[in-house]
Amino acid sequence: MGPEGTTKHRLGWIGAGRMGSALTERLLAAGCDVGVYNRTRSKAEPLEALGATLVDHPSDLADRDIVFSMVGGNDDFLEVTTGPSGVLSVEGTAPKILIDSTTVSAEVSTQVRAYCDKTGTALLAAPVSGNPSVVKVGRLTFAVSGPQAAFDTAAPYLDLLGAGASYVGDGELARLVKICHNLFLGVVAQSMAEITVLAEKGGVSRHAFLDFINNSVMGSTFSRYKTPAFVTLDMTPTFTPVLLLKDFDLGMAAGKELNVPLPVTAAVRELVMGLLGRGITGEDFAVLLRIQAEASGLELVPEDVDVDDGLGEA
């Protein structure tokens, strides 16, 4: 069972993809009552075996106290909330709190927030940092914005889902926080690629160099997590260059709007654009390492060494 107070609300979950399913499993394991909608019902059926109640439409979750959504993007978010069968479409019935972790624009989120105001639903924007592997070990984190009282009510459930939820203020501020996070992600990945190539071209193996970095004051959860990809050159995607470029463009637009110069970010954005120019769209963004090696006249080969990704249980 979860912490005290985490079973008194009836929950709903919209979007049972890899991330949504992993997060719903955590709620079910804590004893929560969870109704689940997924566009392809069969993909959600494993959750039914764990105790979830599957429904046919988002509107079937309108009578739930708190509903989470994690869907594909702007259009999907609008459809499952304000569409004809959306969770906010049932006259006289709506969730008390809607918590959205979809990657959507601030404009679309503002549009849904206005709709929520009409139904008496508090919308919390709650973008995440992490992926299914991070979820599994309880290290997912949230940036959350919206009404403070709604956040206080939802906090115990967010705590079940990961390592912490940071309340960052009202409205759509959490969306800006997520964009800033992903800009940092790309900049650090490029910096990590540059120093790793420099060390290897000077004669140091990648695994030895990264072991030193990870144990130094410069080590981080991110550097440890990306070390296996850098060492083995396994570029199975966790986040693609296409998605990263989208966030870089959003970040550069925010910098222009707020009069904040982003010179380092702008340089890395061009490097990420270069990945797409080469047709590199489906690999992990850690492929920046390979491009840096090519630019440096270094031929990379996989290192057959077991390295820790640092993702122990939180």
Classify the beta-strand content into a percent band.
5-15%
CATH-derived architecture of the largest domain? 3-Layer(aba) Sandwich
H/E order of the elements? EHEHEEHEHEEHEHEHHHHHH
> What topology, given as strand order, has the largest sheet?
3-2-1-4-5-6
Per DSSP, the total helix count is: 12
Choose one word for the global shape: globular
Total domain units:
2
Structural class: alpha/beta
> Class of the largest domain in CATH?
Alpha Beta
Report the radius of gyration as a whole number of Å: 21 Å
CATH superfamily of the largest domain: NAD(P)-binding Rossmann-like Domain
Average pLDDT figure: 95
Report, as a whole number of angstroms, the end-to-end distance: 17 Å
Low-confidence sequence ranges: none
Number of strands: 9
**Which fold name fills CATH's third level, the topology of the largest domain?**
Rossmann fold
Helix content: 40-55%
Largest sheet: 6 strands, parallel
Task: Give a quick rundown of the structure.
With 314 residues, the protein is an alpha/beta fold.
